[in-house]
Amino acid sequence: MLEITLTVLILIGAIFTFIGSLGLARMPDFYTRLHGPTKATTIGVGSLLIASMIHFSTQEAGLSFHEVLVTLFLFITAPVSAHLLSKAALHLRTRSLSEPPPLVDATDHAGRNSPDSLS
Amino acid sequence: MRRWLPHPILTPTLALIWVLLANSLAPGSILLGLLLGWLIPIFTLRFWPDPAPVRRPLTLLRFLLVVGYDILVANLAVAWLILRGANHIRPAFVEVPLDLRSELGISLLANTISLTPGTVSSWLSPDRRILVVQGLDVADPEALIETIKRRYETPIREVFESC
């Protein structure tokens, strides 16, 4: 029973991580590519970590909670890196399917202190 | 009190993280964790001078559950979009007007938006009033803005900025 649960969890994890990476190849522009690896992996990595937690808690003496920390650090760092990548892409005017708001361009390239960019 | 224990919540949190890192509940590691949890806030005081006011822990809990649920659902949605291929997506940027004022609140909201699959917070206006969000498949920009404000911004405001 335990084996089956672990197998299912690991398979789910592997499938979602794979779909996340697949997004990197299939999506058409920078911003849409950003969504695959940073996001579809939350279920992927999550269920792998749950599997790891169950496995090490039952196989060895004592409970294993390292994985909670991995989740925590992942959830703190993933959005930050996604935000920075996307912000940098906006600043560099990366080719995009969707139209970036004019406000971004006006502010980023007009200098920080010009009053009309801060509307 | 203020001087010796500047962040009453950070201290037990750091201690807990230390215990998790050491992966043991031995008295020694708990003590060391508490010691670190007491010293680190004192040394990093200049980085966050004001303690985070957490009010309404129940709202916070409900918010965390809502976010967890949204992450699961949106994760499936993004996986489905990727499998269907690029012809069906409608990527768009939306401008979310912010009611949040504190740095902590805005960064929490931006992180939450990025964590839920299908949306990435991309840009914050220098006056911190508009958050630009990139969505992978936006059917209705107004509805997306409304959802973000109702599901995420309102609870964050209630917990961290209520007066």
TrEMBL record, chain A:
Residues of the signal peptide: none
Keyword Transmembrane set for record: yes
Keywords: Membrane, Transmembrane, Transmembrane helix
A GO molecular-function annotation: sodium:proton antiporter activity
Transmembrane segments: 6-25, 68-86
Tree of life domain: Bacteria
Keyword S-adenosyl-L-methionine: no
InterPro entries, alphabetized: PhaG_MnhG_YufB
Region ranges (Disordered): 98-119
Stated name of the protein: Na+/H+ antiporter subunit G
Organism: Allochromatium humboldtianum
TrEMBL record, chain B:
Compartments, as annotated in UniProt: Cell membrane
UniProt GO cellular component terms: plasma membrane
Domain of life from the UniProt record: Bacteria
Molecular function terms, GO-annotated: monoatomic cation transmembrane transporter activity
Transmembrane segments: 12-40, 60-83
InterPro entries per UniProt: Cation_antiport_E
Membrane topology: Multi-pass membrane protein
Keywords: Cell membrane, Membrane, Transmembrane, Transmembrane helix
UniProt similarity note: Belongs to the CPA3 antiporters (TC 2.A.63) subunit E family.
Protein name, as recorded: Na+/H+ antiporter subunit E
Taxonomic source organism: Allochromatium humboldtianum
